[in-house]
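Dear all,

This email documents one entry for the complex benchmark we are building for the journal club exercise. For each entry we list the sequence lines for every component of the assembly. Then comes the predicted three-dimensional structure of the complex as a token string, followed by one or two observations. Please use this as the template for your own entries, and keep the labels exactly as they appear.
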Amino acid sequence: MFYTDNKLQFPVRVETPDPQFARALQQAIGGVEGEIRVAMQYFFQACGARGNPKFRDLLMNTAAEELGHIEMLATAVALNLEGAPVSIKEEIAADPVSSAILGGINMKNLLSAGLSAMPVDSDGVPFNMSHIYASGNIAADMTANVAAESTGRVLATRLYNLTKDPGMKEMLAYMIARDTMHQNQWLAALEELGGPTNVFPIPNSFPQEQENQDFSYAFLGFQADGSDPVAGRWSTGKSLDGKGQYTSRPMRPLGDEPVLGPAKPNSGAQTEQL
Amino acid sequence: MFYTDNKLQFPVRVETPDPQFARALQQAIGGVEGEIRVAMQYFFQACGARGNPKFRDLLMNTAAEELGHIEMLATAVALNLEGAPVSIKEEIAADPVSSAILGGINMKNLLSAGLSAMPVDSDGVPFNMSHIYASGNIAADMTANVAAESTGRVLATRLYNLTKDPGMKEMLAYMIARDTMHQNQWLAALEELGGPTNVFPIPNSFPQEQENQDFSYAFLGFQADGSDPVAGRWSTGKSLDGKGQYTSRPMRPLGDEPVLGPAKPNSGAQTEQL
Amino acid sequence: MFYTDNKLQFPVRVETPDPQFARALQQAIGGVEGEIRVAMQYFFQACGARGNPKFRDLLMNTAAEELGHIEMLATAVALNLEGAPVSIKEEIAADPVSSAILGGINMKNLLSAGLSAMPVDSDGVPFNMSHIYASGNIAADMTANVAAESTGRVLATRLYNLTKDPGMKEMLAYMIARDTMHQNQWLAALEELGGPTNVFPIPNSFPQEQENQDFSYAFLGFQADGSDPVAGRWSTGKSLDGKGQYTSRPMRPLGDEPVLGPAKPNSGAQTEQL
Amino acid sequence: MFYTDNKLQFPVRVETPDPQFARALQQAIGGVEGEIRVAMQYFFQACGARGNPKFRDLLMNTAAEELGHIEMLATAVALNLEGAPVSIKEEIAADPVSSAILGGINMKNLLSAGLSAMPVDSDGVPFNMSHIYASGNIAADMTANVAAESTGRVLATRLYNLTKDPGMKEMLAYMIARDTMHQNQWLAALEELGGPTNVFPIPNSFPQEQENQDFSYAFLGFQADGSDPVAGRWSTGKSLDGKGQYTSRPMRPLGDEPVLGPAKPNSGAQTEQL
Amino acid sequence: MFYTDNKLQFPVRVETPDPQFARALQQAIGGVEGEIRVAMQYFFQACGARGNPKFRDLLMNTAAEELGHIEMLATAVALNLEGAPVSIKEEIAADPVSSAILGGINMKNLLSAGLSAMPVDSDGVPFNMSHIYASGNIAADMTANVAAESTGRVLATRLYNLTKDPGMKEMLAYMIARDTMHQNQWLAALEELGGPTNVFPIPNSFPQEQENQDFSYAFLGFQADGSDPVAGRWSTGKSLDGKGQYTSRPMRPLGDEPVLGPAKPNSGAQTEQL
Amino acid sequence: MFYTDNKLQFPVRVETPDPQFARALQQAIGGVEGEIRVAMQYFFQACGARGNPKFRDLLMNTAAEELGHIEMLATAVALNLEGAPVSIKEEIAADPVSSAILGGINMKNLLSAGLSAMPVDSDGVPFNMSHIYASGNIAADMTANVAAESTGRVLATRLYNLTKDPGMKEMLAYMIARDTMHQNQWLAALEELGGPTNVFPIPNSFPQEQENQDFSYAFLGFQADGSDPVAGRWSTGKSLDGKGQYTSRPMRPLGDEPVLGPAKPNSGAQTEQL
């Protein structure tokens, strides 16, 4: 169950409204690296968490935090959009700066939302909830969370570099710090699950003797000339999961050309396929 | 540039066609954990790889491998669909097994594709390329790849448990092994980039003194009663990135209730909002 | 800012797990009439609310409630999915009931989520955030909310009729009651805004003398034989917004056939179009 | 069955082509508040209308009208796009106005459609037919239609304010008037169905004694400090559906923390979850 | 401008309602080969038709026909859904036929639409208007229309084979015939445009001397072993557009490995990439 | 199985980076006329090809080619994006050219991908794999391929006209030539299948005596005034498939107004509908 107090987690102020920056901020709301994604991802992972209940609590707690981040960003978008024109006056047509502003925003922020935030990315594409990764495997979920916070912090630093507004920089400096913690938080959860050598390969409950172990630690090459693939830590030495030795070799096809045979009668094929 | 030899990377055979299993296999083609996703993700990461060129080669090489996996799975789907009915005969209406088969497949595999594979998931939802994570940050990409292969292997083991066809088990045992390697491969790439304490927080090129460091390693609580959040590795000790000490505390709002003020004239609001 | 207490708003219990009903419940999570939709819609409307701040508070308060409803439903889905098979045994192939169960669930609930809930509808289609209507016009938002709760309650009663599990009936009886209130709540908000004759036509800030008033209260007919369109309350009497008199008449084209003229050179058209 | 006469319902003329305004107009074609949405929504509601057949006729008649509105807008988009450049000449690179024009249009209107309209919104996002609300409940459909026409008219007035072209203003003045009527038309249909006290709660066929009536007219508070939620018409007095009395109180969790228990063997979970 | 007469273009009757067939019919409404697609495609092509106005008329006329086909199919879906259960009774749980029916339908047809048609495909995926191909090139549009009617007729014959209801067979026999005509109609339009040797390559307005003519009629091989690609009509003889001679040869890379160089500072990359 | 050699099929060079042109090029990667579409379409058609295996080889060979085209374009996008700003400096706000550049790019190319290519179109909309047409009917597939290459070449010529960079013109001149060949290649495949009179109507395996032959070659008119539809090659003469004679006549409804009757009890309808 959720509660609110109508206050912002961290102050949001904009000294000089910048509609183009509002557009950029939309990526942090409705982009695949954005806050809706992490809020809902942690929420659904929590709802499906089986086993030790502390992971449910950890996840739901941080879901609550991320909801507050969407709220902050939505406020920031609305404040930045105050600078956008809502009606055309004679002067604007001849003024390249105003014209560029109108051309440079997400039109929907104006036309659909009346200068407010929307759950869309910086090009106006709505967020799609297929991006909520909640696998039922707690370790896979944690790796997905590390990945989400990594792209999330990359985005936040790009936004930080795109603005010179002190209020916006302050807000983003807070959010970047939270992304630092969240990367570390999910890495810590993987530690609690035993660290890399216990966690991997995910899922660790599948008996590895049932997989085709000739291929479990081989870096295979798919170079057209049959040469060895590029060497690196992935080619030699003990595997990171601690359960094998990396090798490297070119791959050659083990199967033949697949033949499906003729099409069934009444299956809508051409006569030539029957 | 890409080449093909029309052969399968690994043999694909189906002893007893099972249209419902064809539906399940579609998840491994067009699901968000599927092979289109990884093939295209590695491909686009390779195309955008800046810095040391060996990561481009590593990524493009494995993209080529994954393309062959789609091909294997598509063949497996078509072979399993051979068991689906394409026309209704008198007997079928009264036959619950046949009826369930027709109800249990992705209808589009029959109606749109004529008993062949499609780039859709196990519920018939087409793959959307927004799932291709290619961030321009090589470490963020590698964490995304570890995550992708983790959910990928979870899916493959679920499929393995859902079939008793020896051919299908063999194919999946190969694919599970490849997922084992790919998890290890991307973990190895992170090692090459310096391992956790160098890699994190991602991006490591952002000066941490510019983030709000009061919040960089604090596990914040959002419990309604103001209590401390659930304790764990994330609450105490050295942070996994090696750059801080975890702490834990309840969060309280630092901002006020946001007030946007009245709406602009001519902005499509109600008069009461102006 | 949001908080949680990890408890459920209302008890969720399932006496007899029913995987097909889990599929149906998914509609109430990720369907367009579902709880993600209302939670996020009220949230974004709150974030963009300009004018009297009490609407912001009203909306955000109810957003918090709806988040708890998603949590309840996600729990219900997971509990119902306990009845689904995760591995194929010899007996199942010959057993039409088990086979129908597997065919009748959203495959992704099993394959992607490991028997947990997902933000998808009852056919496995992910929720798309374009369904969040937050227009910047408070009255338009309230009508959208009445509509959302109307389809929401229709859905909840359909679900109620599809289950005989006492726990599920109890949970849905609670949710149906909340939908009753929410319909009434948004209707009350429209009353606060002055009721129909003040609120409509939305937006009431646009001067009606600028619209083409010959057509503002005319029910136009588009019957092929030029006859009058079907009569009703919409054809005669005072208009519901109190500002006009309904009339009714067949429509005839006032414009000519549109002619775009030739295509531009270099615009990719056929030579015949230039 | 449908017919056409190749003429426009209302004249469409553009004195000064404005490619950026073409982009804005796309919202009225393929936006969620646009004409495709209402045309198809009324069409599908008509096709599924059960009970009194006059609602089918009412809906299908207005579906025909809206198809003509798409045609008008598509013509307007094409005429406005006449002003867009299709080839780059030396001068353009140095000319900020031309450059802004190219940057400010939907690129697809040029690249995919050759300076014609598309079924996309003002940011180039294709319309998705999930926005067609046709619930099988005639009253829910009518509330959805009121909502659609409310956001539709808000959009049309925003477009009206964004142009100074007399032809475009004339066309939009006609469309705004039609939206006025359509809001009133669907409100009238709700009157025919008995008005608010008969219509609500939707569906009115569900016996209210089966819902949990302790919660049917209570405005519940989800404030973190346990305080009462914001007061208003929704807190006291007779409910708008005439069947209850509004009350208001803070909500506290009635359920416990949900516990799903351990994961099933073979379900792809980590060993720690079993 | 469009008109309706509320009658069906061709009689629609269902002797024995079959909810699973209703699901299959949905593909012909909201599938990518379905009637919404062609109706809207011809409509938008008409709206953007430049040059000889007879193509506008041809397209809009057939758009009107296709709207009537959606209406027929939507009626057929609703009539077939009459056979679906809307409430669970004791007996059903133990009855595999009823259970399979419920599992085998699109759940949304019941839960969202109350046993009516929806603009979704046979797996419940909503139609997306990105499938409306309207290129601004009349010949490209006509080839897209031939393709659309080809997959459309394939689908219709598959549906014909999946039903034994005489009413449904009659309706589909009509629709298959219309698809025959529409394939021929768009082929005839290509004849009017001059036939293959005038029409191709599309667009014929681009001067072929500006393309790299070494590659204009060469069938290139991408076989891993450098062998010639499979021979056929595409390897030798006069090209179908009458403007070249087919040749065939293996392709070898003409470019080097692409090198993007280091990432920009402040671009969110890892330090190692700078 | 697929291989790579890390080299480009054709050289890609950019003399003057142009971020707006990068945006335009994205259409050729992730647009519905783009290279992902054809690569994946040929791939899936190959995987589902039944009957003569040479079509599988033909398709898979060209799929390999198209993968290399995506690679070329992705490289071109990254090179053009080198010109985009990644941080805001004082001067930029006052500089309309820089501001227009930032407003005119796909924001995601910067924010999500760090100045690299993405699988999205020129307005930032991700490619959706529902556009992969692979019908199981080889002739329908070939017509879809002709259509894909027709819109593909139209797009490529538009891009050619939008740039004056010699490197980009060279690359596009190569791609336009390949589209010329591919149009001819698929036309040749239709010739191998017997040419128009054998191929059409697709599918040619459906016995035409089962369709309603009164309507197989009739161009039907849907003009509101009952007049004959526009005349052309489609109205008279032998049909292009060689199996009928075109005729033309107005259509009149053969069915009545559809009546669905009352709604079922418990189906969520209003009482008035029961």
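Observations: The two ends of chain B are 59 Å apart (CA to CA). Chain B has a mean pLDDT of 94.
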